[in-house]
Amino acid sequence: MYEGGSMDGLDEQPTLRERAYESFTRHLLARDVRPGQFVSQRRLVELTGLTLGAIRELIPRLEAEGLIKTVPQRGLQIAHIDLNLIREAFQLRVFLEKEAVALFTRSASDETIAGLLKMHRNIADAINGGNNSHDLELHAQAVDWGMHDAFIDALGNTIISNVYRVNSIKMRLISQERFRIDGRVGPVMGEHLKVLEAIERRSAEDAVSALVAHIHHARDRALRL
């Protein structure tokens, strides 16, 4: 029999761990801590506003996911963006998204596909009309990530979604450090439209080919810088 309050304690603990993880990744993507930077547990407490105990429980998960590593004598180091990480992250992305886009091509509703095409064409039209604003770039980046997320979501596989989520954090860090969408909205939207138009035709082979080409272009830009 559970004593009063003990069930609450069991319920709160996973929530606290998730809060710590979400807070850390939010600050990481907001560049409050930077790739390669060394941080202390106390600094993470200050950053997240959570307890030292929560941070200590968080560290093994972050290490397992490759988002931080413990360096003897120096402390915790945020994942460093190097060529090996770039190659591995993009390779994993290709493996996951090839199957995902093929399934999406076969299973997505006409309305879903039409919605994605409309968003991309609106951005492309705005660029062609001379809109190069920062707000449009931010919107384009969100639409970019949203399309790739939609492909993975179509798989309906929690294990794959979790692997993709971690890799997506690394991809966003790589994007921030190595190749932002700024100034390249037009070409990126053009590559996306090739993928989406193949999906609209229900050609899984063309969609996969266009998607792989798109991901490889992004990888090559990151590796060149």
Description:
This protein has 225 residues and is mostly helical. It folds into two domains: 73 residues, Orthogonal Bundle (Arc Repressor Mutant, subunit A); 142 residues, Four Helix Bundle (Hemerythrin (Met), subunit A). 74% of the residues lie in helices and 4% in strands. The chain contains nine helices and three strands; from the N terminus they run αβααββαααααα. Strands 1-3-2 form a three-stranded antiparallel β-sheet. The longest helix is centred in the middle third of the chain and has 25 residues. The relative contact order is 0.12. The N terminus is likely disordered. InterPro entries: GntR_C, TF_FadR/GntR_C, Tscrpt_reg_HTH_GntR, WH-like_DNA-bd_sf, WH_DNA-bd_sf. This is GntR family transcriptional regulator protein. One of its GO terms (molecular function) is DNA binding.
One letter per element, helices H and strands E, the order comes to HEHHEEHHHHHH
Number of strands: 3
- CATH level 4 superfamily of the largest domain: GntR ligand-binding domain-like
The major beta sheet can be summarized as: 3 strands, antiparallel
What global shape is seen? globular
Q: Estimate the helix proportion, in percent.
A: over 70%
What is the annotated CATH architecture of the largest domain? Up-down Bundle
Q: Looking at CATH, which topology of the largest domain would you report?
A: Four Helix Bundle (Hemerythrin (Met), subunit A)
> How many domains in all?
2
Spatial ordering of strands, largest sheet: 1-3-2
Q: Strand fraction band?
A: under 5%
Q: What Rg is obtained from the alpha carbons, in whole angstroms?
A: 20 Å
Given as residue ranges, the uncertain stretches (5+ residues, pLDDT < 50) are: 1-12
The chain-level structural class is mainly alpha
Query: Roughly how many Å apart are the termini?
Result: 61 Å
CATH class categorisation of the largest domain: Mainly Alpha
**Total number of helices:** 9
